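Help needed: design a sequence for this.
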């Protein structure tokens, strides 16, 4: 009897404990926690996002390169939409009816209760017309956002463009982006996406089970405002960029100008370019396809993706290594008979210079002199064999940035082409030496560099031994943050004393009567430079100029490449001088303005490829042709 009595109270106690636990849990869910309420938020809680303005991008003098323009998306909550005059709404917003219906069906299929964009990027004018009549179309509303606008229509490849996110990008960024959001797809817009995009705002609205709005959730306490993206101050000088793009009209090539001491890029011209405004708005897709059809590849960012043999631009670098290694000094003399013989290879020279030393060798761009320096470097007795010597030379050249990316703050930078000894051993087995790769002495052969790498070599020489990573953004946000990697000096292992003899030769190339770069002279400014005529296996040679100015305390280092333009002195050198003079003097001298205008109008484009096969005309019966013409004439 006692056992039965005890079991009764135990069971009752268990029921009481379980009941208390259930009541406590229910009280917690209803009073203290929104967890279970929010799990049904798709039915009763809707988020309306407000989009921040992307960060403005300025040039180095804080002139606007990219700003924002207000546009409007026509949104709809499909379940709220009542029967309406579709044709009239499409007329107001200037859109094809079939397209509108397709977009609406897609939105309804995704969700009947969540807002979805039906037509995007309506202009202010369309919005004004629509807002007056929007009450006639229940379930539709307008959401504002901004798109990019480029007041000067320049620097398309540098700035890049934005596009709607893809499903893969939505997944990659852990849900920050939603369908219909925009993301930087190229250029600075992509490289600095997290700084530029800002933070979306969100308003949470309550609806009851009958889909009737009940106001803000939690009285709006949990709503957040949109936060605009960070402002970027780029390193570009808008004056140089404009002039560079005008000079490179109807030409293929690149201009890269760098401030040597900081690594800040002053001009970043890729030609042919495009108006970045074409990549904005409702016609973006069609414009993109039209640009894509351009046979000269306007989306190829040539400053960081174009491959060119450095040509004579490489000679100062190799001379520096020769001085550092002690195989030459400034007075070492070689005889130039107009060529250099290396085994079975003959490297021709543009001139017969006779006995020639370093300074004049660089001023005259003497191939023979450069080949002798390379020969001495690779045949040094301190090395076990020439392959070991070559690898050491390769290591020293690589410190100047050849054969690898420089780490510019843009996506898509390429490494160039510059091989170590193992490549040649694989290609030629053990039977190779300096004579096999003698073309490298003059920057030809199996060596390609990007225009950025070539300009950076000039910055190194201007700084007498170091460079700062080239970059296009110099400050981020109100605090003007600068990334540490773009303030550090990278030394190339050449003693400072060896630079003056090389710079002497580059100064003489521009300023002496026998120099090859006299077309780049600037009044009252000592320009140091080097022309190059780079072999092109697919057509006429490329015109190249590299240099910096002024000689003392250099402010600008520059590389200009004009494809298919022949001698470096013809196009590249004068273009470089105009850009340099504009930067240092704020204007080009009056006596050169006619030359500048002439250069802008020049067309230097490759000939269209010839068809591989010629179609033979079919043989025709002359009598039948005459009869056919007579019959047509009598009709």
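Sure. Designed sequence:
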């Amino acid at each position: 009897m006692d056992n039965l009595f005890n079991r009764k109270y135990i069971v009752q106690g268990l029921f009481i404990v379980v009941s208390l636990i259930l009541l406590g849990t229910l009280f917690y869910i209803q009073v203290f926690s929104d967890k279970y309420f929010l799990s049904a938020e798709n039915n009763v809680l809707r988020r309306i996002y407000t989009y921040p303005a992307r960060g403005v991008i300025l040039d180095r003098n804080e002139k606007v390169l990219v700003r924002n323009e207000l546009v409007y998306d026509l949104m709809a909550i499909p379940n709220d939409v009542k029967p309406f005059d579709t044709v009239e709404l499409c007329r107001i917003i200037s859109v094809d009816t079939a397209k509108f219906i397709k977009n609406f069906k897609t939105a309804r299929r995704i969700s009947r209760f969540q807002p979805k964009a039906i037509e995007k990027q309506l202009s202010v004018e369309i919005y004004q017309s629509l807002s007056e009549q929007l009450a006639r179309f229940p379930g539709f509303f307008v959401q504002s956002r901004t798109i990019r606008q480029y007041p000067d229509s320049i620097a398309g490849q540098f700035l890049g463009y934005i596009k709607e996110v893809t499903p893969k990008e939505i997944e990659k960024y852990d849900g920050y982006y939603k369908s219909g959001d925009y993301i930087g797809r190229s250029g600075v817009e992509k490289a600095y996406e997290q700084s530029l995009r800002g933070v979306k705002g969100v308003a949470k609205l309550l609806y009851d089970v009958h889909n009737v709005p009940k106001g803000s959730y939690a009285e709006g306490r949990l709503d957040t405002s949109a936060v605009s993206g960070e402002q970027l101050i780029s390193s570009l000088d808008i004056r140089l960029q404009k002039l560079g793009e005008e000079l490179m009209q109807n030409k293929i090539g690149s201009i890269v100008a760098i401030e040597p001491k900081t690594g800040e890029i002053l001009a970043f011209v890729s030609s042919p370019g495009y108006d970045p405004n074409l990549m904005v708005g409702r016609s973006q897709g069609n414009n993109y396809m039209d640009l894509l059809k351009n046979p000269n590849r306007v989306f190829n960012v040539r400053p960081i993706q174009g491959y060119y043999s450095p040509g004579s631009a490489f000679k100062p670098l190799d001379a520096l290594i020769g001085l550092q290694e002690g195989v030459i000094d400034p007075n070492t003399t070689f005889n130039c008979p107009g060529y250099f013989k290396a085994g079975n290879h003959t490297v021709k020279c543009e001139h017969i210079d006779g006995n020639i030393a370093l300074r004049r060798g660089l001023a005259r761009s003497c191939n023979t002199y450069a080949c002798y320096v390379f020969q001495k470097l690779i045949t040094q007795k301190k090395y076990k064999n020439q392959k070991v010597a070559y690898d050491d030379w390769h290591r020293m050249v690589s410190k100047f940035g050849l054969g690898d990316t420089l780490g510019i703050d843009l996506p898509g930078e390429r490494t160039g082409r510059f091989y170590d000894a193992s490549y040649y051993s694989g290609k030629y087995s053990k039977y190779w030496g300096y004579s096999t790769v003698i073309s490298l002495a003059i920057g030809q052969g199996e060596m390609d560099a990007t225009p950025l790498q070539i300009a950076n070599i000039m910055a190194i020489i201007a700084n007498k031994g170091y460079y700062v990573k080239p970059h296009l953004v110099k400050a981020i946000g109100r605090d003007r943050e600068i990334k540490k990697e773009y303030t550090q000096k990278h030394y190339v292992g050449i003693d400072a004393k060896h630079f003056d003899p090389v710079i002497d030769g580059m100064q003489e190339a521009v300023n002496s009567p026998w120099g090859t770069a006299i077309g780049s002279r600037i009044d009252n400014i000592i320009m140091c430079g080097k022309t190059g005529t780079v072999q092109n296996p697919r057509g006429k040679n490329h015109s190249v100029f590299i240099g910096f100015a002024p000689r003392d305390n250099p402010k600008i280092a520059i590389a200009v490449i004009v494809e298919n333009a022949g001698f470096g002195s013809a196009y590249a050198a004068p273009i470089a001088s105009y850009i340099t003079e504009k930067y240092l003097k704020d204007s080009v001298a009056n006596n050169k303005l006619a030359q500048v205008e002439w250069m802008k109008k020049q067309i230097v484009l490759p000939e269209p490829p010839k068809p591989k096969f010629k179609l033979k005309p079919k043989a025709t019966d002359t009598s039948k042709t005459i009869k056919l013409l007579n019959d047509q004439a009598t009709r």
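The longest strand covers residues 64-76.
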